[in-house]
User: What shape does this take?
Amino acid sequence: MTSSSGVPAPRPAATVLLLRPDANSGFSVFMVQRSMKSSFMPGAHVFPGGRVEEQDREQGREVPLSDGEVMERFRGWLDADCARAHLVAAARELEEEAGVTGVDLTATFGFSHWITPPIESRRFDTWFLVTTLPEGAAPQHDDYEVIDSRWVNPKAALERYGDGDLLLAPPTYYTLWDLARFDTVEEVLSDSARRPLPSVQPRFQSIDEQMALLLPGDPLYPSEQPVDGPTRVVMGDSGRWWVVSA
Assistant: This one.
C-alpha cells in the first residue's frame, strides 16, 4: 500500500523478545538468523517476528484481556482489536519460526515501537514485545525462514559485536543495548509494564562523512517524545552499526 505522497505505508508487525533466566549472566534473549535468501538483510540475527495478518485479528478476540488492559500494553497507540492482533501475531511468529507454543499473552508487554523511515521501499510499523519462555519449551529455528538460533546475553552480545559474529540491523542492536541496562528478567518485565513507548522513526543523515540514523530527541531531531537513551546509530568503516551519543 502506498500513501497519496507516494511513500509506501508501513505494514503492521510484531517482534518477540523471548527471555529466560540465566544463572551466570542474569538473563538471555532468543535470537534467530535470517536465511541467506531473505530479501531484507540476509544472514542478519533478529528477534522472531513478522507481519500482523488478518487471521491474527480474528484470533485476537480470544485473548483474555479487557480492552483497557490490552490497550495499556501499547500505551493507547493501538485500539483494543489491533492490540490483541499484535499479541497473537507475536505468538504465531514465535511458533512458526522457533516452535514455541504456550506463550502467556497476559504476561506479554510492549517494549518499544519502531517505524521504518519513509526513504525505505519496505516499511514496517513494528512493536517489540517482551515475554518469558514457557516452562518446558525448547526453541529451535525452523531451518527455512531462519537458519540458526541462539540464546544471547545482551551485555555479552554487545561486547562481542565487533568480532563479526553477529550482523544486526540498527533497531536490533539498539534493542540489545536497551536490554543490557537490566540484570534480570523480572527487571525487564517490571520496566516494560510502565515504560513510555514513543514511536521511533529514525532519520537518515550524513554526519562527518558517516551515515547516521537519528532517533527522536537527538539535537538534530527534536521531539516531544524522545527515546530514553542514545539518539544516534552510526555506520562505522566496517559497515556495522554502532550506538553512540550525540
